[in-house]
Amino acid sequence: MREPFRLDANQFVAAVSKARGRQKPSLSAAAIARIREEYGNTVEPTARRLGEALQHERAISDLVNAAYGLTSDEIALMWRTAPPRMPLGPKEELRRLGFDA
User: What CA–CA distance (Å, rounded) separates 14 from 32?
Assistant: First the structure.
């Protein structure tokens, strides 16, 4: 389960069940209820905060580009040559900004 914050509650329960493997007995109704409760207490709020952080990252990126007076072509070049460790995904940013990825 590499990206639990992209899963809804049902998908999360299924992923937990799958991660337990075939050797373990299936989850009880009480265990499923507890997983759903924990999902609501932990995963949902974190996913919401990650979404907010992404919006802030994008806003900062746009402000920096504007502050440097970058043209559309320069911004596209920057994202096409961005290193893989960027906090924003280059392909997603190219799409968001209206460029072909």
Answer: 9
CA dist 2 and 4 (Å) reads: 6
Indicate whether this model's pTM tops 0.85: no
pLDDT tens digits for range 9-54: 999 999 999 998 888 888 999 999 999 999 999 999 999 999 999 9
CA 25 – CA 61 distance, rounded (Å): 48
**Tokens encoding 2:** 């590499």
Q: Which element (helix H / strand E) includes 12?
A: helix 9-20
What contacts 70, CB < 8 A, 6 or more positions away?
78
Distances (CA, A) of 60 to 1, 52, 72, 91, 98: 30, 12, 16, 18, 18
